[in-house]
Amino acid sequence: MSAFVVAIDGPAAAGKGTLARRLAEAFDFAYLDTGSLYRAVALALLRAGNPQPTEAQAATAAAALDLGLTGDAALRDEATGNLASVVAAMPRVRTALLGLQRDVAVNPPGGKAGVILDGRDIGTVIYPEAPVKLFLTASVDARAARRYLELVDKGVRADLDQIRAEIAARDARDAGRATAPLKAADDAYLLDTSNLGIEDVFAKAKTIIEKARGTQA
């Protein structure tokens, strides 16, 4: 039996990661934050002293990616996220990571019966045949406020206006890139999280998955 794949797409700070982890736990599915792959490429470049890589340099870093970097705390730094958005727009980088992501969808780690993948182009490019596609979104203000509080809670000094501007810029890059732009698949379920708590979003997504599976998990 093929693995049951749930694709979760959406812009930065819409709540994809939090939802994906909750769903993976609820259904005992594997989980892959595909954005962490691009962040890991960006982190590798930054640590190599290359904050403005050419596409060829970024593609080389992607091909030689150390998956151990996907667990590095520095992945959540703003500098890493901003460069990740830049390299993610490079076709050669996306090609270098495409096979890895599809392999996880077909063969979930740990022999799990399903997998949750979250990113920007899971339902449109990476695995368009996924039986469940969710597209999470939220207003720029709502997402900026969440990121601001997240940083403050960690004791990091943050500027709300700067965060808002950075998120808006990332949205523009992600939606405007020529290769695999951020957009909802035609058959994706749209979930606007601007005014919803995680429990409400989780309940809606869980019901959608249960209906698609024909079971009650």
Automatic annotation (TrEMBL):
Keywords: ATP-binding, Cytoplasm, Kinase, Nucleotide-binding, Transferase. Gene3D superfamilies: P-loop containing nucleotide triphosphate hydrolases. ATP binds at G10, P11, A12, A13, A14, G15, K16, G17, T18. InterPro entries: Cytidylate_kin, Cytidylate_kinase_dom, P-loop_NTPase. One of its GO terms (cellular component) is cytoplasm. GO terms for molecular function: ATP binding; CMP kinase activity; dCMP kinase activity. It is found in: Cytoplasm. Its main location: cytoplasm. SUPFAM superfamilies: P-loop containing nucleoside triphosphate hydrolases (SSF52540). Pfam families: Cytidylate_kin (PF02224). It comes from the Bacteria. It catalyses: CMP + ATP = CDP + ADP; dCMP + ATP = dCDP + ADP. Residues 6-209 form the Cytidylate kinase domain. Its EC number is 2.7.4.25. GO terms for biological process: pyrimidine nucleotide metabolic process. Belongs to the cytidylate kinase family. Type 1 subfamily. This is Cytidylate kinase. It comes from Oleomonas cavernae.
